[in-house]
Specification:
With 154 residues, this protein is α/β, with parallel strands linked by helices. The chain is built from 4 helices and 6 strands; from the N terminus they run βαβαβαβαββ. The longest helix is centred in the N-terminal third of the chain and has 17 residues.
Length: 154
């Protein structure tokens, strides 16, 4: 299974938290990252997003390019636990590549849990992507970091 952790792009401050929308800069970040993802994802990839508006808008940038639908998953909302995220996407058993559009600190904790075995406060830049792959070798699950994408470099 391949798992992409995509942090939502830059959003406006304010309340309610779930209603915060992307800034103009955030919209550009989401489009640039979506273009890169669209060029590299398999056609079978699925997009799962937090119910927060900023995550929905970020995910929609990819959905519009790829004609994929976005599945809203409550377990990806702000303050989600890394374990809840992994359970929601059926890690590591899902057959399709999964793109998770979510939040900090959860996404950094998911990455560290999978790569270091412990939920640590790793940072994922706004509209940044961590691409992970699970492989079983001799019955042992190995997690490989395939890419870390910084939107400022796209």
């Amino acid at each position: 299974m391949e798992l992409l952790l995509w942090r939502h792009a830059e959003a406006e401050p304010g309340e309610p938290d779930l209603g915060r929308q992307l800034t103009a800069k955030g919209e550009k970040q989401a489009r640039r990252t979506a273009q890169w993802l669209h060029a590299h994802l398999p056609d079978s990839a699925r997009i799962y997003a937090s119910p927060a508006l900023r995550a929905q808008q970020t995910a929609q940038a990819l959905a519009e390019l790829s004609r994929r639908k976005v599945k809203t998953v409550d377990a990806l909302a702000p303050e989600a636990t890394p374990e809840a995220v992994l359970q929601a996407v059926d890690w590591p058993d899902a057959r399709a590549t999964i793109v998770v559009v979510g939040h900090q600190p959860t996404l950094g904790q998911v990455a560290s849990l999978l790569l270091a075995g412990k939920a640590l406060p790793w940072s994922v830049k706004k509209s940044g992507v961590w691409w992970l792959q699970a492989r079983r070798r001799d019955g042992v699950l190995n997690v490989v970091l395939r890419a870390v994408i910084n939107p400022d470099l796209l």
